């Protein structure tokens, strides 16, 4: 389980160290940095597939995603004046967990060394045992284009391995600890505002195959629900639907191996197909499939799951979130206080973090220096 998330110089996240629990609710006003935190987690996940550079390019490049404020705050407060950057460009992401910790440091290439001047390069990358970086706990260490690892004896291997500056060691090496962490990160699942418009993938019939984890776009919703019914928590599926829509039940139909979705509701002479469902109803069923997955990931992250949902659906959603957190670590990013209160009502151990914006910097409300989890960045 992850216990700490650390971000430095990513959008409004100038210097954020966030404690994580089995179930973490991240809330805050619009513009407080919730979306940046969600993107930072996704960027860490992209790193395990060597996709960090491409992901940053889709966001406009490293320069567009860097903290745009001053490197130093004026002593004693006062207005911030523009200054020339004195330190090298550095975007840092990392996490600490019960078993392993990991951190990366991205920067710009040496001027004149390449025409791809905006492509970030890995300046430092570290994997260590335990939640906090200590030299004695390092398992794999990367400086620019050179990676080294510890041998089974605990001593550093004499071999030094070359790596491209735009590749992560997580995607390039198969040392046991690196391979284990890579597979764990690759299991992370992110669900961000499912499409529910008339042309949404979840409304169409699809070839049905066993689907232990719902796709990010929800296109395989019928197959995912049928997989839950046959090999997962079938009673939990029925209860989740009935709690949200009293007397209703969901049915998956098979037309020549093409699966479709139907919702039976009391008072109607026929069931409703997926194409006829309201946006809120379809979104709720997508969340049911995501949270009742038959293959729980290491980490499940929901971004604003309350979108399009009627307030009456928030308590059933909260119960689903709490149940999922008993099988996997869950992070919910939301600005809906009714959802936060509903989750806290069914899961008192849920950890709520409120983000606030102070002088354009995202901070954790009420967090002082002594309240921050212990964290150390590797130096270049």
UniProtKB/TrEMBL annotation:
Q: Which UniProt keywords apply?
A: ATP-binding, DNA damage, Nucleotide-binding, SOS response
- Record InterPro entries: ATPase_AAA_core, P-loop_NTPase, RecF-like
**GO MF annotation terms:** ATP binding; ATP hydrolysis activity
Q: Which GO terms describe its biological process?
A: DNA synthesis involved in DNA repair; double-strand break repair; SOS response
Q: Where is this region: Disordered?
A: 361-380
The yes or no answer to whether the keyword Transit peptide is present is no
What residues does the ATPase AAA-type core domain cover?
Answer: 23-336
List, alphabetically, the PANTHER family matched.
DNA REPLICATION AND REPAIR PROTEIN RECF (PTHR32182), SLR1056 PROTEIN (PTHR32182:SF25)
Q: What is this protein called?
A: ATP-binding protein
Q: Which organism is it from?
A: Actinophytocola xanthii
């Amino acid at each position: 389980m992850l216990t700490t998330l650390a971000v430095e110089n990513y959008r409004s996240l100038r210097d954020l160290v966030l404690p994580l629990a089995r179930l973490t609710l991240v809330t805050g006003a619009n513009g407080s940095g919730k979306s940046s935190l969600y993107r930072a987690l996704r960027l860490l996940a992209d790193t395990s597939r060597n996709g960090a550079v491409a992901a940053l390019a889709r966001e406009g490049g490293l320069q567009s995603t860097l903290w745009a404020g001053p490197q130093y705050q004026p002593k004693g407060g006062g207005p911030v004046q523009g200054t020339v950057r004195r330190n090298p460009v550095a975007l840092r992401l990392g996490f600490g967990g019960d078993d392993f910790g990991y951190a990366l440091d991205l920067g710009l290439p040496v001027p004149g060394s390449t025409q791809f001047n905006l492509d970030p390069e890995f300046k430092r990358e570290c994997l260590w045992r335990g939640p906090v970086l200590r030299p004695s706990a390092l398992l794999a260490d990367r400086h620019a284009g050179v990676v080294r690892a510890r041998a089974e004896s605990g001593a550093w291997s004499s071999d030094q391995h070359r790596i491209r500056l735009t590749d992560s060691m997580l995607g390039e090496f198969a040392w046991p600890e690196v391979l284990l962490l890579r597979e764990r990160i690759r299991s992370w699942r992110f669900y961000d505002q499912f499409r529910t418009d008339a042309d949404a993938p979840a409304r169409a019939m699809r070839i049905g195959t066993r689907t232990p984890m719902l796709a990010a776009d929800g296109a395989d919703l019928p197959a995912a629900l049928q997989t839950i019914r046959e090999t997962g928590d079938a009673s939990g599926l029925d209860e989740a639907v009935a709690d949200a829509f009293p007397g209703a039940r969901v049915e998956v139909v098979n037309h020549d191996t093409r699966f479709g979705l139907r919702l039976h509701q009391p008072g109607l002479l026929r069931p409703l197909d997926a194409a006829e469902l309201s946006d809120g109803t379809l979104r709720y069923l997508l969340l049911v499939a995501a949270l009742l997955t038959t293959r729980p990931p290491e980490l499940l992250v929901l971004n604003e799951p309350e979108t399009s949902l009627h307030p009456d659906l928030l308590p059933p959603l909260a119960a689903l979130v709490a149940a999922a957190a008993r099988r996997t670590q869950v992070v919910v990013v939301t600005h809906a206080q009714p959802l936060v209160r509903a989750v806290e009502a069914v899961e008192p151990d849920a950890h709520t973090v409120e983000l606030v914006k102070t002088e354009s910097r995202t901070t954790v409300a009420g967090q002082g220096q002594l309240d921050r989890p212990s964290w150390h960045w590797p130096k270049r």
